[in-house]
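Quick one - inputs below.
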Amino acid sequence: MLNFPLMDDTFRNIRDYIFDLCGIYISDNKKYLVENRLAKILTENKLNSFEEYLKFIKICKNGNDHSRLIDAITTNETYFFREPDQLNIFISEILPKISNQKPEHQNIRIWSSACSSGEEPYTISMMLKEKLLDLSKYEIYASDISEGVLSSAAKGVYSSYSVRNVPEAYLKKYFTNNGDCSILDSSIKKSIIFKRINLIDSKNINLIRGVDVIFCRNMLIYFNIKSKQKVISHLYDCLNPGGYLFVGASESLHNVTRAFRPSVINKVIIYKKV
Amino acid sequence: MNTKRLNKLLSDLTHKDSSRRRSAAEALSEGDERALYPLIKSLKDENLGVQDAAIQSLMNIKQEATAYMLLPLLRESSFLRNTAMLILKEMGKIAVPLFRTLLTDKDDDVRKFVLDLIYDIQYCEYPDELVYILSNDSNSNVRASSAKALGILQFRKAIPQLIHSLNDEEWVCFSALEALAMFNDDKSLEHIIALLDSPSETIRFAVIETLGKIRSQKASTPLIERELKADDFERKLIIKSLVQIGTISSTPHIRETLIEMLKEDEWEDKYTAIKGLSNLKVNEAISPIIDLAGSLESSVPENEDKIEFIKKAIYSIGCHKNLTNIITSPSMKYRGKTIALEILGELQCKEAVSVIINSMNSDYRDVRRASIESLIKFESDEVSKCLMETINHTDSHVRKIAIMAMGKIGAVAAFEPLITMLHKEGYSDIQEDIIASLLKINATLFLSRIDEFNDDTRKCIEHHTADSGPGVKC
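Output:
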């Protein structure tokens, strides 16, 4: 265990560093959380204080250490078929609308913008396949700020916790059970294009354009209002006119932007770029 | 901004392509006054994205001129008026001097809107004028907004007038109560308490809530007396206020009401209930409170605060068989069980040890992990023996924690079993933990046997023993 407490000044410096790095704002009452979560990194790196860690992370331009920091302060907890009502509306209502508007030769582009370990884009891919849709007509992009979770996503190996909501039929069809873990079928893995993208970074965001549907679920909760506005403005620019944005069921764009037109389908709120 | 670029952006602001208009509106946020009027016009753009960009840019141009040009929008349609209020609020103090002349505007709505803005901005250099409005304005909505603004401004000279306003129309009375609650001033207490006998149910409810917010002990007795005459709903409000004040007695119906309150939708109500139940140390509340914590999605940051609050409440209730029973309860969710296990460990509830040991074989990995994390908090022979057996557990996560615990407590008896394990352990991170534990138990003996291991393991041991700086991995 560490002998040194996290002093208020150091906490604020670490907090500001994280904010500049990825836009995640940590309020004063979360000091204990930063202390707990970073303690392990300090131990791993044989550092004796949070002050040392701050110097270390500022000097070290290694993406892995940044990823490790972001991983530690975000939860990255997700699972397959999370908030299924939204997914069902996407498949049954939104997708047909987009298909009707699109010229035949153009693919439909879907983007899971904060995909963590990949459960969301893989769920989308499986649902498309179950609808007997031709996956080659869909481009599913998945991004996250953390290299660590993206490499885990690309492996497609999941704990029982991640697959707890997966319907039995999907489990049998798309996963191989290997004792403690479930391994995703390679046809689904291949259907996703992973990219490391920091949504707060305007240069980074140019990597994806012309998207028809963006999923940005349970990510805005980490941001303050200014960062939310920046991220949403970036996502707006990535969407095609008439494109759709899904945010988490407990999230809202109220007070963030008026750029989207919200509509409610079966109690699910969807934001449309008009 | 140079004129050429400005003219280009202003031209783009009327371009037929909405994405060009939006980009121009965004770029005009740099603070040039010449962009103000075109941006205000863009608030009426047919495209929502352009409107939004214009709003954000106007918010960024924090100049008196911006505020001045936005004021006429307060008389426009509700959309433009709300937009203007949003921007003016964001502009903050700089806009407040401009509101002064509007306090005497002929339009009731305009007077109310500027008072609401003062409330939002929480700043005003002319509060005496607000007191005058509270006493003399002909419109009750305006008087109510004035009362709220005076409360948030903490303008104490207004207290007598606010007390007087308790006898004004109901709507003004509500706002006066809200304002007086912000002052926390005992002088107003007797006047507020007098309204507990108001024939108006809504006034009484507002008074009860206000007394809870003021948190003065002087309000306890009148509230308790009122409770005797109250119906179910009013009683619940009174109990909430008594919890906030911190004077509540443990009667069966109060306990039941508080437990029932855990089911309310609002978290403010749940917090009050949890606080009351933990103050009263209601053991039968342990299970529903833990169940509530277990129902929270732990990946949502704000839920972490809620879970922490709940844990602290249960700590203060203390060790009880109801807490231990949660571990074996078939109806409790696994998240609730993990929280209960953590608390049992922190409280070192000795009578729970055997139950915790049994739960190491739970079907749920999180429960297995939480069980061993909990166990390592105990210092007893039974626990040490159990941890020893667990270093060979089939679940690698459980095994890992047990191995680390052996190192932490310096368990000499674990030395040989760990040596044996190091030869066959497949996971590299667990190998590292075994090495770290062996070094803690007896570094000299361990290093003297380094030749027993293969090259990879030896390298890993060398890494651990050398102080070679950050980032060392086997």
